[in-house]
Amino acid sequence: xxxxxxxxxxxxxxxxxxxxxxxxxxxxxxxxxxxxxxxxxxxxxxxxxxxxxxxxxxxxxxxxxxxxxxxxxxxxxxxxxxxxxxxxxxxxxxxxxxxxxxxxxxxxxxxxxxxxxxxxxxxxxxxxxxxxxxxxxxxxxxxxxxxxxxxxxxxxxxxxxxxxxxxxxxxxxxxxxxxxxxxxxxxxxxxxxxxxxxxxxxxxxxxxxxxxxxxxxxxxxxxxxxxxxxxxxxxxxxxxxxxxxxxxxxxxxxxxxxxxxxxxxxxxxxxxxxxxxxxxxxxxxxxxxxxxxxxxxxxxxxxxxxxxxxxxxxxxxxxxxxxxxxxxxxxxxxxxxxxxxxxxxxxxxxxxxxxxxxxxxxxxxxxxxxxxxxx
Amino acid sequence: xxxxxxxxxxxxxxxxxxxxxxxxxxxxxxxxxxxxxxxxxxxxxxxxxxxxxxxxxxxxxxxxxxxxxxxxxxxxxxxxxxxxxxxxxxxxxxxxxxxxxxxxxxxxxxxxxxxxxxxxxxxxxxxxxxxxxxxxxxxxxxxxxxxxxxxxxxxxxxxxxxxxxxxxxxxxxxxxxxxxxxxxxxxxxxxxxxxxxxxxxxxxxxxxxxxxxxxxxxxxxxxxxxxxxxxxxxxxxxxxxxxxxxxxxxxxxxx
Lengths: 375, 255
Prior knowledge:
The complex is a heterodimer.
Chain A (H helix, E strand, L loop, with lengths): L3 H13 L1 H10 L4 E4 L6 H6 L3 E4 L20 H11 L8 E5 L3 H13 L5 E4 L8 H21 L6 H27 L6 H13 L2 H16 L9 E7 L5 H9 L2 E8 H7 L9 H11 L12 H13 L3 E7 L3 H16 L4 E6 L7 H14 L1
Parallel strand pairs in A: 1-2, 1-3, 3-4, 5-6, 5-7, 7-8
Helix pairs in contact in A: 1-8, 4-5, 6-12, 7-9, 8-9, 13-14
Chain B lengths: L1 E7 L3 E7 L5 E8 L6 H13 L6 E7 L11 E2 L2 H12 L5 E5 L4 E6 L5 E6 L8 H11 L6 H6 L12 H13 L4 H23 L5 E4 L6 H11 L3 E2 L7 H12 L1
Parallel strand pairs in B: 1-4, 4-5, 6-9, 9-10
Antiparallel strand pairs in B: 1-2, 2-3, 6-7, 7-8
């Protein structure tokens, strides 16, 4: 049985080299469908016998994408289009993009126009999810997507396969939630960079394979004594943080992520789909039940209180909001999140990040100082 | 024994030597930051003024953006922590410190005992920083130290609406070309910095007494405009630019 270090190295290898993982899937004769951020119903892809492959941009500089976007545009969208325009996604049989924010909507349309060699599968989802009309809208959209994804994978998705995929994904998300909890208890064994790598690898690997390795890791971690001694315990909030320069700073300053409100992590992993009844309806209803997220319409802004609650429940020393530059939903929520944290007595720091930034020296200064304050 | 604080900033390097009681005995300033000869020059100036040799320095603490590159340092501290530490000594009882440096602006909230409680920094943009004023002084053809005098000769402030330094430079040039007085445009440049700084301060919340540090604090006209904007008097000191280095020296003393 592999040990913790070996398993983490394996995840890091995949996270650092997604192209190699893509090539492996293709070499195994699998069709691969790209999935953008987020709440994309990957289960449909899996049920079609294909591999869902996460495409959330990458760290780098947008050049060709500037032809389509102004500079003040979410870097995930810019870099995803850049990858498409640079033919880095040509092996995909399609890419599923949502329109949950205005930026993603424009990005999906530009992708369709600019990257003609990769079919863009538009994932339509309702924002008014609490109403019966919203629920029915989601069901109708997902039913149509079932056909579209099946066509992209040269198959017809049957309900039994979809039910199997839902079961696998439920197990995987549960295992991932357990991993995040175990990583929080063992910062000396799982660094911030390694935590991000385990999550990222899950976006690239076959879910069944990733699940097996995550379960093995969870078992090994659970057997170790929990300790956060010597670490500054923080809640991370934001969309993503898997930027090597940033995770390095977090690790160098001995931060331990004891809870997260990260879109790529706990927000995306919150879904639990019913394994009873019509699987397409179950997928739609699971999405409609999702909450506590800046990208999802919620008249009560549950996301804001959720961050402060995470601070209180996790025993964290502070909250770090990694504000994704030019991300409207996050920018709009940020002042409210800051206030909620202040009201909860949480030391709070807001740091601007994006995939196109090469220097994080200002973030280093802020995080070092924050470590001084909460240390 | 003596203790040395070195603030390797983006546009200038500042050095302070203190004695065992924390009293400043020497200071040095050199144009240039990390990767230049400025740290060595600032150190030499401070040691000469203090009449102290390197061997008499017990501990060196480096701060500022170039702190990691100053090999002689025994310890490093972020400039935010050092500015808080220095300000708590320079301005006893101060609760809010506004620092406008060469490439960033920061607002610090100090606790009753002088400890750093919270802070806010500007986004990654030169607007509202010392660099912004340097660029505008270049357009006016004057030294940045003359901007205060220019402002004082102004009848009214000409609005500079561009938030980006590069676009603001173009806007300033076009205002001058359209016949606006250089003094009124200088006042507008100051108001632009004041608006951004006040916004940053309000984001954190201003608790008086307020002090201002960094090289821009020595710009009297800008500081007075900021006082009006935030509604509180602002203390400063002739050592404003050395505040970070002073804080670093105190950290070295306390180590």
